[in-house]
Amino acid sequence: xxxxxxxxxxxxxxxxxxxxxxxxxxxxxxxxxxxxxxxxxxxxxxxxxxxxxxxxxxxxxxxxxxxxxxxxxxxxxxxxxxxxxxxxxxxxxxxxxxxxxxxxxxxxxxxxxxxxxxxxxxxxxxxxxxxxxxxxxxxxxxxxxxxxxxxxxxxxxxxxxxxxxxxxxxxxxxxx
Length: 176
Hints:
- The protein has helices at 4-13, 45-51, 53-63, 65-72, 140-146, 158-169; strands at 26-31, 75-85, 94-104, 109-117, 120-133, 136-138.
- The chain is α+β, with helices and mostly antiparallel strands.
- The protein has a single domain (4-169), classed as Hotdog Thioesterase (Thiol Ester Dehydrase, Chain A).
- Strands 1, 2, 3, 4, 5 and 6 form a six-stranded antiparallel β-sheet that branches.
- The two termini are 30 Å apart.
């Protein structure tokens, strides 16, 4: 089940946080509950993606993205994600999540999220997200203008550009 109560808690906890700029991290603190576990009693890999919402949505709110989406009747969708898992998150273990917007290209916004156990990174996700409207994907420059930020975002890091190139070479639809 989706963590609605946890999301409400995060939005409440961060309701008075100052606005964020592109590249600035939103930091939040969480616990791995029993319903987050897999058969090996560690944070389930799929649940990790769901829990990343707990950082991504408050970050989007602090960036002014949620306000721009609502004002214009747009939605937001995940268009791709790549995750690295490097350390186990165990039952009742606390962790810190860091979420930041990296920038955008002509179609997508790119977000970096990571889960930390103290100084050790347990996992990291690179997200490609899109604003959507009745005509399909809304150009990020138009969304940026609605957020009152420069329409040309900062240059994307090389590792993100490499991922974009790799994704462009991936066949779609996949072989049946």
